[in-house]
């Protein structure tokens, strides 16, 4: 039997999230640190510090990683409330692609990988990307059309391909929030090869709320140690479904909140607007 009554925790979190968005996040919407390709990393960190203080940072993840271990239904309610501002999901660290990535990291990563990647991601110390979509004849609606290749060389996978519509990789933010080096910068992380990972172009889209924008990315001989492979080799398609099925719904809940905001703005305008008197 399906329980339709809403629990106390769900109602309390919805109310607390709505207040946080109204009082803390909406005032940031005109902040000059937001450009056409999203908020700067400085602004993201500032908002996330306030969410952390309010007990609202990454509420969807398990308590071990700093959240409340919300059910799908509770997550949906919180995402709808925080979507009331396009900046809300960023402030609360439950925006795409990080929210979907945290979901699959919890399901698939080894304990050591979780400590290395999930813990700082849930804490807002780093950002992440999900690189499935490709230009031309590659992966899109049908990810089985993937043209990017991974070749095993010793104890490293060598990855080559081109991706686009990838949320997050605007080069400006790489040195501070990515553990992959920007092209031409000194490599401080043994996981990636310098000059291998290049953001070719940040696409112009109508949204300006996602940190790092949406980019075309080139992967040229990117070297990933076998210890850093997510789950088992050759199960990538299955893992993508584990990530994408709930991630499509979480997108919808955030947008439901945004649609409610647009509706409220329209109602507010309609109620105060006076039509000019008709000329004779
Ligand atoms: C703002 C934004 C952010 C994004 N961020 C990411 C990201 O971070 N990472 C990532 O990997 N991707 C990302 N994407 C890409 C997104 O997942 C793809 O756009 C989506 O999967 C569709 O692929 P496509 O654009 O190649 O369209 P296509 O697959 O080319 O589809 C084009 C049209 O054809 C239709 N169509 C396709 N196949 C069929 C068929 N067999 N039968 C009938 N109709 C069909 C589709 O419904 C659609 O209307 C993002 C997209 C946007 C807009």
Overall pLDDT metric: 89
Strand order of the largest sheet: 3-4-6-5
Largest sheet: 4 strands, antiparallel
Supply the CATH architecture of the largest domain: Orthogonal Bundle
The structure class reads alpha+beta
The overall number of domains is: 2
Instruction: Count every helix, treating DSSP H or I runs of 4 or more residues as helices.
Output: 8
Question: CATH homologous superfamily name of the largest domain?
Answer: Acyl-CoA dehydrogenase/oxidase, N-terminal domain
Topology as a string of helices (H) and strands (E): HEEHHHHHEEHEEH
**What gyration radius follows from the Cα positions, in whole Å?**
20 Å
Helix amount: 25-40%
Poorly predicted regions are 172-194
Give the N-to-C terminal Cα separation. 65 Å
Written account of the structure:
This protein has helices at 8-25, 41-53, 72-82, 88-91, 98-108, 111-122, 174-177, 236-272; strands spanning 34-35, 38-39, 149-153, 156-167, 197-202, 214-225. The chain is α+β, with helices and mostly antiparallel strands and 280 residues long. Residues 172-194 have low confidence and may be disordered. It contains 8 helices and 6 strands, in the order H-E-E-H-H-H-H-H-E-E-H-E-E-H. 39% of the residues lie in helices and 14% in strands. A 4-stranded antiparallel sheet has the order 3-4-6-5, with no helix packed on it. A hairpin with a 2-residue loop joins strand 1 (34-35) and strand 2. It folds into 2 domains: 8-127 and 237-271, Butyryl-Coa Dehydrogenase, subunit A, domain 1 (Orthogonal Bundle), CATH 1.10.540; 143-228, Butyryl-CoA Dehydrogenase, subunit A, domain 2, CATH 2.40.110. The structure holds flavin-adenine dinucleotide. Residues 97, 130-133, 140-142, 165-167, 205, 214 line the site of flavin-adenine dinucleotide.
């Amino acid at each position: 039997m399906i329980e339709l009554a809403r629990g106390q925790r769900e109602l309390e979190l919805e109310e607390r999230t709505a207040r946080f968005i109204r009082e803390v996040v909406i005032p940031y919407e005109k902040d000059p640190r937001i450009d056409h390709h999203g908020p700067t990393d400085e602004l993201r960190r500032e908002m996330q510090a306030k969410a952390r203080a309010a007990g609202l940072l990454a509420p969807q993840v398990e308590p071990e990683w700093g959240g409340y271990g919300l059910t799908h239904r509770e997550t949906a309610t919180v995402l709808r409330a925080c979507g009331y501002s396009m900046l809300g999901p960023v402030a609360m660290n439950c925006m795409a692609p990080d929210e979907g990535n945290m979901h699959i990291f919890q399901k698939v990563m080894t304990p050591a990988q979780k400590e290395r990647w999930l813990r700082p991601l849930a804490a807002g110390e780093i950002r992440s990307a999900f690189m499935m979509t490709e230009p031309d004849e590659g992966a899109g609606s049908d990810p089985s059309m993937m043209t990017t290749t991974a070749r095993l060389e010793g104890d490293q996978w060598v990855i080559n391909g081109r991706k686009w519509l990838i949320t997050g990789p605007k080069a400006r933010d790489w040195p501070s929030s990515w553990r992959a080096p920007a092209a031409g910068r000194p490599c401080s992380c043994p996981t990636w090869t310098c000059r291998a990972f290049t953001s070719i172009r940040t696409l112009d889209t109508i949204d300006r709320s996602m940190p790092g924008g949406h980019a075309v990315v080139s992967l040229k001989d990117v070297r990933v140690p076998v210890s850093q492979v997510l789950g088992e080799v050759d199960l990538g398609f299955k893992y993508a479904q584990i990530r994408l099925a709930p991630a499509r719904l979480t997108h919808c809940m955030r947008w439901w909140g945004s649609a409610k905001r647009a509706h409220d703005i329209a109602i507010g305008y309609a109620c105060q607007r006076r039509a000019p008197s008709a000329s004779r």
